[in-house]
Design brief:
Distance between the termini: 44 Å
Low-confidence stretches: 1-6
Shape: globular
Number of helices: 13
Number of strands: 30
Helix content: 25-40%
Structural class: alpha+beta
Length: about 600
């Protein structure tokens, strides 16, 4: 096992440990609240289980309670036969509930609510830790000052922008009139105090215009005046497999332009720029964002530019730099096809070893990078990583091993083209593209200076009340949007244990982010469990209240029917969410593979050794 694999293994183990400790711990805390309240109130306790279903391992305590970890990690329970008949979920009771002493209304309410109470206490405690140590956030996100408003934004997450193949749209915020330096005060009449709240307010928005297009009203401060702008967010597809889409306004926060690395032999090195230098102005114009600076360089072309730079030692100096027109991507092959809607099949030259890092490796096969825009009919056949082995050439079936060979075999005149494909697992086949022809697609050349920018973070010190109140408010807003026809938020976008586990793994490098996510999980558990739905804690409280203030409206038999009915509905909902989570993971894997292909076979290091 090489060092990389060993590190990956250690990372995976660390991620698994974090899931067990923090996610499992959150469930434990919830059930501990029920357990301690039930013991304090003198209720019969049969089991304390983390997870549902058959027992994996555990022990029976001196108090007679069966403490166990069960096989299905979708929650947990404390078996309390006096509180509710939950045999369908928790298993059969050793005693009939009717033979046990009746418990009071207060007992039912206190025991039911204490799970959520313990989650809130746990979340508040963790939020207190973050208040003390600080939560790392992206630079600029602690304010609402706009740093960059792009004129064009990508409308899909397919990483093809540098190839000029990704779908784009006019930047909604730019079109509406928002500009760098504006301070956002509110979105849709809701006050915002940091940049993440701006993005969240747009994403969870539910306003539409008369044509049914999404809208968001921004109140901003500009030069001492308060102005309003109506933005029409675009829907960005996050995942082709799950179909997740969110509203985006196209805004970035104000961030410092700090140099991380300087490419040897580049214009930046020749001009005297060094790591940790901060670029303040370009041709006398103050800079608000790294992306803004890069785009300003591209638009200006290969002509001398004047920079105001704050050196690492603190002195401000003026430098003249002349960008060089170059490209950061290798050529790709594009086959256009389609009778009614034209699509582009994008192929890249790749090595036999799909993910080789060797830039000198011989690229002797053509591999599918993607289809733009997406083609549902061919998505499974021509999925990323599929090798195009042969094509039906104009004269005969021809093997293709290079871009030049493919373009020659396909030709420029539209015709029905048969592709022969294969995959690493041995699958193979062929298909025909209607009205297919080759397109010349040369990488775009941009004015560049040879800088890799430093990613800066800030520490946010938010008091526990502010942190917890913000999460609870967001949770209720999200739940409300699920039933709002004006919203783009759907039930399938909710996270199951799969997404939760994946998020813990992705955050595992920074324990502070893990703590914040655990705060989120605990507050969500508290809110969701208190919903007045039979089977959940809130449902127990609702049923107990109805039985308390009505006579005979809900018999024990009716309660059992309600419990089982909603149990089936809840399990069905969980299965639906998990199904879409599996699709989401599949889509994420494809995006990751696409990005790896781009990084290994398409993107190339900036080379300033030869000036053209």
């Amino acid at each position: 096992m090489d060092n990389l694999s060993f590190n990956d293994l250690l990372g995976s183990l660390w991620g698994i440990i974090l899931v067990a400790v923090f996610f499992g711990g959150s469930i434990f805390v919830h059930e501990l609240g029920h357990f301690l309240a039930a013991r304090k109130r003198g209720l019969k306790i049969e089991r304390f289980s983390i997870g549902f279903g058959p027992r994996l391992f555990g022990w029976t305590g001196k108090d007679g309670v069966d403490y166990r970890v069960s096989i299905i990690p979708l929650g947990g329970y404390v078996a309390l036969p006096q509180l509710a008949d939950m045999e369908g979920i928790e298993g059969a009771s050793s005693e009939e509930a009717e033979k046990l002493p009746k418990i009071s209304y207060a007992d039912k309410m206190i025991v039911s609510v204490m799970g959520a109470v313990f989650n809130v206490i746990f979340a508040f405690a963790l939020a207190g830790v973050l208040w003390f140590v600080g939560m790392p956030v992206a630079a600029g996100s602690t304010t609402t000052v706009i740093g960059y408003v792009p004129a064009q934004i990508a409308t899909s997450s397919d990483h093809l922008a540098e190839l000029g193949l990704g779908s784009t749209a006019v930047g909604p915020a730019y079109k509406a009139g928002l500009r760098p330096g504006d301070k956002v005060l509110a979105v849709d009449d809701a006050e915002v105090t940091n940049f993440n709240q701006i993005s969240e307010a747009v994403m969870l928005g539910n306003r539409k215009d008369s044509q049914g297009n999404p809208t968001a009203t921004f109140k901003v401060e500009r030069d001492g005046q308060v102005l309003e702008f109506v933005v029409q967010p675009v829907r960005i597809e996050l995942n082709a497999k799950s179909g997740d889409k969110v509203r985006v306004a196209g805004l970035q926060p104000r961030t410092p332009v700090v140099i991380g690395e300087v490419v040897p032999g580049s214009p930046a090195e020749k001009a005297g720029l060094r790591p940790e230098d901060r670029i303040l102005e370009l041709d006398g114009q103050p800079l608000n964002n790294t992306v803004e600076f890069r785009e300003m360089l591209r638009e200006g072309g290969a002509k001398p530019r004047t920079l105001l730079v704050r050196k690492a030692g603190g002195a401000d100096v003026s430098l003249v730099i002349t960008p060089q027109a170059t490209t950061t991507v290798n050529p790709v092959s594009v086959i256009a096809y389609g009778e009614t809607k034209q699509r582009s099949l994008i192929l890249v030259p790749a090595t036999r070893d799909l993910l080789t890092k060797d830039p000198e490796a011989v690229r002797d096969q053509l591999m599918v990078l993607g289809i733009s825009p997406d083609d549902p009919e061919l998505a499974e056949t021509l999925k990323i990583g599929t090798i195009i082995d042969k094509v039906d050439g104009r004269d005969q079936i021809a093997s293709v091993r290079s871009i030049e060979g493919l373009e020659q075999a396909v030709g420029k005149a539209p015709r029905d083209l048969t592709l022969y494909w294969k995959r690493a697992n041995g699958d193979s086949g062929n298909l025909t593209l209607k009205k297919a022809h080759s397109i010349d697609k040369q990488p775009a050349r941009h004015a560049q200076v040879g800088i890799r920018y430093a990613n800066r973070t800030e520490l946010a010190y938010r008091n526990p009340w502010e942190t917890c109140a913000g999460i609870v408010k967001s949770t209720f807003t999200t739940l409300g949007r699920l039933f709002d026809r004006g919203s783009d938020i759907q039930v399938k976008q909710l996270a199951s244990v799969i997404s939760i586990t994946k998020t813990y793994y992705n955050l595992s490098e920074d324990i502070r982010r893990v703590l914040w996510f655990t705060v989120l999980i605990n507050l969500n558990l508290a809110v969701l469990n208190l919903l007045p739905i039979p089977v959940l804690d809130g449902g127990h409280m609702l049923i107990a209240t109805i039985q308390r203030f009505t006579k005979g409206l809900l018999s024990n038999k009716a309660v059992i029917i309600l419990q089982y009915t909603f149990m089936v509905l809840l399990l069905s909902l969980m299965a639906y969410i998990i199904l879409h989570d599996v699709r989401r993971c599949s889509g994420d894997s494809e995006l990751q593979l696409k990005q790896q292909l781009l990084e290994r076979h398409v993107y190339k290091p900036q080379d300033f050794s030869v000036k053209k």
